[in-house]
Amino acid sequence: SRHFGDFISSLVLAVAIDMAAVFPANQVIVVGGGLAGMSAANQVVELGGRTLLLDKSSFCGGNSTKATSGINGAGTKTQKSKSIPDTADIFVADTLKGGAKKPELAKVLCVNSAADVDWLVDKFDLDLSLVARLGGHSQPRTHRGKERFPGMTITYALIQMLEKVAEKTHRARIITKAEVFKLLQSGRNVVGCEYRKAGKVVKEFGPMVLASGGFGADFGSDSLLATYRPDLLHLPTTN
Question: Which has the closest alpha carbon to 142: 89, 73, 86?
């Protein structure tokens, strides 16, 4: 699912917080400014932490802004208000039937989905009041508002919230045109990263959340996209 990263951001964040006990750090570093990365960064701030968000593009949003369907959730407040009898267990069954190969990840995707959608509505005042049943789903569970591009609406709301925190406090930093190319390690533990910006290499330390998307945004000559689908290299997105 294109929303997989969105739903697991809370799990990834929990892992990152656990990692913080391994070494002293005063920030969580998030790589990627799409919906998954923005979700993780906003949660860090919400829980009282500091975050640094790095994105290689000149602006945040990523592939998430191009999503036109909506975001999936089972057992949400919106569904309950419409008497839709959906549950996480039904969502898990649909996901596995659709070809998911890792049941444990499917459970994270589905069990967290209601809380994730409700969080977007409650914390960012988003309209996700329209619910539709799309392909592969046995229940109406794809949430969106009245806007034409729900991915853009949802992602920009999170970007704007983090930008406000960055402008008014020292608890968030957003750095664009920053290409993370190396993870720094202490033994087997990842303790930070190096990134390039304007010809300079910068080191940052802290637990890492990698929300940089998949192969679809790697246009390098040795990328999976170039190797297996070079005919798609000219497209700005594979969404």
Answer: 73
- The encoded tokens of residue 35 equal 């919906």
Chain segment 172-214, per-residue pLDDT in tens: 999 999 999 999 998 899 999 999 999 999 999 999 999 987 6
pTM comes to 0.83
pLDDT digits (tens, 9 = 90+) for 113-153: 999 999 999 999 999 999 999 999 999 999 999 988 899 99
| Contact between 7 and 109 (Cβ < 8 Å) | yes
H-assigned helices in 101-185: 103-111, 113-124, 150-168
Single-letter amino acid code for the residue at 70: G
Question: How far is 3 from 113, CA to CA, in rounded Å?
Answer: 10
Radius of gyration of the chain (CA): 18
Could you give the CA distance from residue 127 to residue 153 in angstroms, rounded to a whole number? 9
Q: In whole angstroms, give the CA distance from residue 112 to residue 160.
A: 24
CA distance linking residue 27 with residue 175, whole number of Å: 14
For residues 31 and 208, the answer to whether their CB atoms sit within 8 Å is: yes
Q: What is the pLDDT of residue 1?
A: 45
The β-bridge partners of 144 are: 130
The structure tokens listed for 96 are: 């596995």
Contacts for 142 with CB less than 8 Å, ≥ 6 apart: 69, 70, 71, 72, 131, 132, 133, 134
Q: For residue 186, list its beta bridge partners.
A: 189
Strands 189-197 vs 51-54: parallel, antiparallel or unpaired: unpaired
213: left (phi over 0), alpha (psi -120 to 50) or beta: left
DSSP code at position 82:
T
Q: Would you say 63 and 229 are in contact if contact means Cβ atoms under 8 Å apart?
A: no
